[in-house]
Amino acid sequence: GLAGAGAGGAAAGPGQKRQLPPVEDRGRARTPTQTEDILNSILPPREWDDAGQLWVQRVSSTPATRLDVINLQEQLDNMLQKRQARETGICPVRRELYSQCFDELIRQVTISCQERGLLLLRVRDEIRMSVAAYQTLYESSVAFGMRKALQAEQGKADMERRLKELEEERRQQDQAVLELKAKCEAIEKREGERRAMEERKHAEEIAFLKKTNVQLKTQLEGILSPQKK
Predict the structure, then answer these.
(1) pTM, whole model, 2 decimals?
(2) What is the mean pLDDT of the chain?
(3) Averaged over 28-53, what is the pLDDT?
(4) What is the DSSP code (8-state) at residue 57?
């Protein structure tokens, strides 16, 4: 990490306010033990087990020089480039590195002025709490957007399925219309043929009756003519 002597996380959670120690006489020098205790409360020691042996790493209480601050800045820039942190937008890597750098600055300030270090710690915890709230809001917004997208996709699928059903229904209706038209044409043709047949038959009957009438008239005239003589 960027913090001096491998500093760990904060002792208090985001938003938890620390009680500042009473203001003491500036002339009284604090003992190294007091400074180390405050540093350990701000940046707790890191413990880990290696091959069955417990190791404890405590934050350094050595005051930082101007060169240390310059080296810290260079180390931050190198780590940002090495881990390919994004310069803009949301980047967990960049956030982690700047958080470690801020912890180291708190350590350096605390060694020279414990009250200022504790105040910076409150500022850091407030920032972390705000970032956590924004992150929760962002995740909720993303989840809401995903739900809406899924609902829209589901609605789209339903509409597409309904559209296919309507198209199939229209196709069936069109087929029924064609069948009905064919039936109508067949009926009209059949009726036309029947009407033509009836008209022809009627004409033949009229012609036959006329012919019969002429024959009867001729026969009647033939019968009546000798009587007149």
Answers:
(1) 0.52
(2) 82
(3) 77
(4) E
